[in-house]
Amino acid sequence: MAPPSTPRLTRRKLLIGGGAGVGLVVAWALWPRRYGVNLAAAEGETIFGPYLKIGVDGQVTVAVPQSEHGQGVYTALPQIVADELGADWRTVAVEAAPINPLYANPLAAGILFGDALAALPEATRNVYAERNALMLTGGSTSIRRFEEPLRAAGAAARVLLCRAAARDWGSDWRSCGTADGFVVMGERRERFGALAERAAAESLPGGDLPLRTGEEKRLLGQPLPRLDAPAKLDGSATFAADIRKPGMVFASIRQGPIGDSRLVGLDKAAAGAIPGMVAVVEHDRWVAAVATTWWAANRALDAMSPRFETHGLIDDAAIAAALDTALAGEGARVHDTGDVDAAFAEGRTQTATYRVRAALHGAIEPTSATAQWSDGTLTLWMPCAAPTLARAAAARAIGIAPDWVVLHPTIAGGSFGATLDTRVAEQVAVLAKRLERPVQLTWSRGEECLADRYRTPAAARMTARLARGGTIAAWRAQVAAPRTGHDLGQLLGGDVAVALGRALPGGGDALATDGAVPPYGIAHVAVDHHAADLGLPPGWMRGGAHGYTAFFTECFLDELAAFAGVEAHSFRIGMLGDDVALARCLTTVATLGGWQGGVAGSGQGIACHRMRGSAIACMAEARLVGGRVKVDRLVAAVDCGRVVNPDLVRQQIEGGLIFGMATALGAATGFAANLPEVRGFGGMHLPRLADAPEMLVELIESDADPGGVSELAVPVAAPAIANALHAATGRRYRSLPLPG
What we know:
This protein is α+β, with helices and mostly antiparallel strands. It is 33% helix and 23% strand.
């Protein structure tokens, strides 16, 4: 049967009030919401819902729907279940959850694809994510999205185990408790493993599930050891490049320059002269060499000297001109409080312009995937932050239905958002089907840079008016950047809802300006997005737009403090209003860091930010040594709500500070003739161990709901360092990366 044709979109259809959205709401409301559990149980295992299995040996296995790329979800999410279940941490294991709408992440979908789904009401977008099984890792959403269902999973299994034990003991299940992997009632104890099979046959009582009470034997909030660490330490952890299959061959790829590029020629004979060569596979936009070893395949690529025809010019001058043109034009208002224009008319304003270059992901693990084509089924092994989208992309590439693609997600060596990209799934699918044998495709480090989906270049014109007393009366941020959220919608494929959203007339893009609203009590605030067409492919990077909007905001705030003659820390504290959490972060970091007021010669700078429901302040000590930036110390105070595992939070804050420092001092590239100028780690100027500053991280206790952590420290590092450099040198730094 031929697939239904996509409805033709017209301006009239888009402008009919409520038509598209209401129609989709009705259709989805009629769609049955029954999703079966598709966990696989080994011999001796009993399944308790979509998140949990218990074996006869007492092992508790938690299915995690998020990608583990170092942030600790393979520990934090099982810890939530284990705490509510009353498990012994030594018996807890973890596995990747299969694709299922039950594991959809509407919170991440709203962050990453909200602009692409702009035609849908917010509630309908959440339904869209569920119906399409959008399993997504990004936007610091793992704990925030899954804490509640994971607690419910642990609570449900605990109740069933207690009911099974109580039936054996002839008592009321409400008199039972759990601890250390046992159901207990007075002196009676029974192992989870001995009860699991009978417990699964019990039924849950009506009403709300009772949650565990008491402080004894609790795992939540404890610095439990990571479940993924032992395998990573002894080398048994399986990354994409570790997959081996009988008869497998290895491929390296060369893709065309950025823009409209087509493969027009290559020297196959030269490639064939490389020992171990198996095949050359050509595609309109890329060519792959396949050999018995990856090194031979990569050498063959260089030997064949592929040539591409590219239309249009992308270089630094064109990017700068596009950003300037966008800033000079009329922007689209994405945030509006008070009356900025009227407030600006009442007095003199201060203005500064800031710029950031494109940033590279620079993950340790290069892009890699393994595929096997057999009997009409494609099997994939790869790290992916969006498994549903990767499966669909691979299926489209070779003309099969997604149901005929089996995806085995592997852990990732970093990523920082790079594994949202589905191109490697498409490429390896084509190779596997054409060669009809297992193939492993790995991008070279140079290809990683050449074909990266960069964090976009951006520019901002910041304008403010100071009131009497040194406070800020009005604030406007004009941000020039591509329509990032709109463009990321291409990852969702040819869905009708996405086509509707992307066909809407151009406007402000929330993802491109995310984090640009200052966290201060300013009466008149406006944020305008000036859409710029830079010709660069869209990508998501750890921190998103916050990586540049916080730099714009916190550096400009320091300039205003100096103009008002007020010390930078006090200037911020005085404008926070009711934001107690951020005020505590600022006060704590100033006390711990020995803040001296950021006076000339101190080399101290400060910055704060709100992101994903969390608050952070950072103090940096930095100086110039031989024309290069030397960061001596970074101190951070964090309020991220209720903490599942404090060690994981500290790891993510410390890692985020180093990541933010890397993007402040390097990890960037310019462009010439449609190619990035940086081709490997050597050109990224990444901080080495000798460059790592002294770090101190303080976690502020809170009973609030958990906020995001994995991205939180990234945005504050750059402005804190830039402000510290001003204190050290007397010069304002308004561009990233910073000098050196």
